[in-house]
């Protein structure tokens, strides 16, 4: 795992975007795993800047979203299908027909989940997966005690997750109780992972995921099993890392041939 500590949330977005852009520049048909929520917004903002400047194009890329609420209408502004279309597909110039979101409205959720994993495999697998991390250590909507071998499936959202997401709705009562999410096993099959976190509220989760024991109680710790995971955080989110000085030293002395920004 490469840990990159940066001074501001804006820098987190810029450097993580540079990592995504390097993958797509090398492979214009890359398959990108797309996350929602506030954490990756800086990535999409910087990627939009790069697209507008003609530095990169997503016209040939494909996208697969991490998750979707179950039972929420497609046209609801907070359905992840709507969020991905609004915040990612349109500003980055993806072909909408090449971007998939789990079908949280399916009558047969189990079949839809298996079909989603099959679609990812049929696309050649995800080249680079964008991730955030919840304050309880979840990635995607894989709540604590999720199996590291889990596949795309329905999950019950933890009360703390629903409370955190209530800011996007008019009230907590409107936040769905269930979701369809890529499993940890699905996520770990991506060729590269890029996780971002900003703010002191994420500091404990970041430290547990990066430096804590491998544990299903902290789903984000699954990144320790991955061959090529990059964790980009601001100083506030890095506050509880024991080896913070070493991570800063390592990044400052990174060989030129390994750099992507």
Keywords:
single chain, 261 residues, alpha/beta, 7-stranded parallel sheet, 3-stranded antiparallel sheet, 8 helices
List the helices and strands and how they pair.
Elements: E1 2-6, H1 9-26, E2 31-34, H2 41-52, E3 62-65, E4 67-69, H3 80-92, E5 99-100, H4 109-122, E6 128-131, E7 153-156, H5 159-165, E8 178-181, H6 184-188, E9 192-197, H7 203-211, E10 229-234, H8 244-252
Parallel strand pairs: 1-10, 2-3, 2-6, 3-5, 6-9, 9-10
Antiparallel strand pairs: 4-8, 7-8
Helix pairs in contact: 1-2, 2-3
Describe this structure in words.
The chain has 261 residues and is α/β, with parallel strands linked by helices. 33% of the residues lie in helices and 16% in strands. The protein is built from 8 helices and 10 strands. It has helices at residues 9-26, 41-52, 80-92, 109-122, 159-165, 184-188, 203-211, 244-252; strands at residues 2-6, 31-34, 62-65, 67-69, 99-100, 128-131, 153-156, 178-181, 192-197, 229-234. The strands form 2 sheets. A 7-stranded parallel sheet has the order 1-10-9-6-2-3-5, sandwiched between helices. A 3-stranded antiparallel sheet has the order 4-8-7. Helix 1 packs across helix 2 (41-52). The chain is globular and about 55 Å long. The protein starts with a strand and ends in a 9-residue tail after the last helix.
Summarize the model shown.
The chain is α/β, with parallel strands linked by helices. Helices cover 33% and strands 16% of the residues.
């Amino acid at each position: 795992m490469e840990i990159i500590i940066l001074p501001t949330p804006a820098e987190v977005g810029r450097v993580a975007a540079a990592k995504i852009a390097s993958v797509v520049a090398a492979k214009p048909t890359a398959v990108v795993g797309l996350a929602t929520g506030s954490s990756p917004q800086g990535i999409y903002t910087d990627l939009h800047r790069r697209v507008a400047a003609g530095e990169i194009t997503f016209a040939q890329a494909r996208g697969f979203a991490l998750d979707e609420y179950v039972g929420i209408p497609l046209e609801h502004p907070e359905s992840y299908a709507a969020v991905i279309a609004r915040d990612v597909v349109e500003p980055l110039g993806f072909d909408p027909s090449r971007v998939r979101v789990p079908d949280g409205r399916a009558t047969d959720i189990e079949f839809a989940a298996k079909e989603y994993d099959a679609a990812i495999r049929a696309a050649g697998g995800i080249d680079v997966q964008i991730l955030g991390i919840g304050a309880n250590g979840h990635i995607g909507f894989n709540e604590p005690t999720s199996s590291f071998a889990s596949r795309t499936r329905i999950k019950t959202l933890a009360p703390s997750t629903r409370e955190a997401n209530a800011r996007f709705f008019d009230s907590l009562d409107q936040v769905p109780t269930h979701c369809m999410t890529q499993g940890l096993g699905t996520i770990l099959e991506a060729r590269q992972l890029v996780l971002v976190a900003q703010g002191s509220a994420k500091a404990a989760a970041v430290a547990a995921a990066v430096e804590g024991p491998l544990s299903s109680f902290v789903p984000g710790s699954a990144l320790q099993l991955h061959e090529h995971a990059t964790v980009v955080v601001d100083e506030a989110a890095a506050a509880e890392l024991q080896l913070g000085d070493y991570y800063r030293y390592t990044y400052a002395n990174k060989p030129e041939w390994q750099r992507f920004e």
